[in-house]
């Protein structure tokens, strides 16, 4: 009987270890808003405009996802108009699930994270523990009631930690077309053609006068 009980316990232990996501379940320690901002390289609000899953080995873990955000307010980091942030696809691996078309307050870190099995090739990353949350659609700096989209208003402590927002820089203007060249075999400036035409008219008038004088003599 004792051996049967031991065998059952071993089988149960093996099943728990083999269950996907159980052995690597994400556990987050609560952070104060000030720490969330301090430990982030970029903090911004933006709308998800694209998502792409990275390629990984067929037999390996689920590859991470790179989300592209159109930023509307930046609270920390460069005030870029667009951000790319990578996160794991599974919540069990501390991934955060963003929804395309929704607006979020995003806390993104830079550098090595130890969360990804493959190199994502994106400098910014985030996780389930970073403090991300969905907020009300819009482009203005956050207010307390903007957090109602995710179920609870934004706290005064969070708004104070975020500080003053900076609108993102507008996209760089396209390069102006090059000025027409005044050298080489191409056509010259229009004033040259006008001068030549006037000179030709002057010569024609002088020749006509000489021709009339010759006939009169």
TrEMBL record:
<keyword id="KW-0472">Membrane</keyword>
<dbReference type="InterPro" id="IPR008993">
    <property type="entry name" value="TIMP-like_OB-fold"/>
</dbReference>
<feature type="compositionally biased region" description="Pro residues">
    <location>
        <begin position="167"/>
        <end position="180"/>
    </location>
</feature>
<dbReference type="Pfam" id="PF00965">
    <property type="entry name" value="TIMP"/>
</dbReference>
<keyword id="KW-0812">Transmembrane</keyword>
<dbReference type="InterPro" id="IPR001820">
    <property type="entry name" value="TIMP"/>
</dbReference>
<feature type="transmembrane region" description="Helical">
    <location>
        <begin position="191"/>
        <end position="211"/>
    </location>
</feature>
<feature type="signal peptide">
    <location>
        <begin position="1"/>
        <end position="25"/>
    </location>
</feature>
<keyword id="KW-0964">Secreted</keyword>
<keyword id="KW-0732">Signal</keyword>
<feature type="region of interest" description="Disordered">
    <location>
        <begin position="161"/>
        <end position="187"/>
    </location>
</feature>
<keyword id="KW-1133">Transmembrane helix</keyword>
<protein>
    <recommendedName>
        <fullName>Tissue inhibitor of metalloproteinase</fullName>
    </recommendedName>
</protein>
